[in-house]
Design goal:
With 111 residues, this protein is mainly alpha-helical. The chain has a two-stranded antiparallel ribbon. Helix content is 68%, strand content 5%. The model has no long low-confidence stretch (mean pLDDT 86). It starts with a helix and ends in a 7-residue tail after the last helix. Strand 1 (25-27) and strand 2 form a beta hairpin. Helix 1 (2-20) packs antiparallel against helix 2 (34-53).
Length: 111
């Protein structure tokens, strides 16, 4: 049951991240992609929390997150959530890196 819950949570984090990563703030003629930064940070925090819940929890969450990316690739038509620009690639690579780092980093709490 925990695995299925973490898989669904990974799908949820992926969908919300795909929507949120497009938010930017313009200041002084510079684009500040606060949506990407927030999405990557929250993804890392949730992966770490899932790893504390069960030994392979972060991997199950990452699998759900990856299903969101794969669903957009096989869907008919173009993806409107993750564009092929620097913000979209920053979201994809940054979140994937956060998941890998969160899964590979050993937990602090010892059971």
């Amino acid at each position: 049951m925990k695995r299925a819950s973490l898989l669904v949570l990974g799908v949820y984090v992926g969908v919300v991240g795909a929507i949120m990563h497009r938010h930017v703030w313009w200041a002084g003629g510079v684009i500040w992609p606060w949506g990407v930064l927030l999405t990557v940070a929250v993804t890392y925090a949730v992966v770490r929390a899932a790893g504390q819940l069960m030994p392979a929890g972060g991997a199950w969450l990452g699998l759900g997150w990856g299903l969101v990316l794969m669903a957009q690739q096989v869907s008919p038509g173009d993806s409107y959530l993750i564009a092929s620009d620097w913000i979209g690639w920053s979201f994809t690579i940054g979140s994937a890196g956060a998941i890998v780092l969160g899964v590979l980093r050993p937990p602090r709490l010892v059971r």
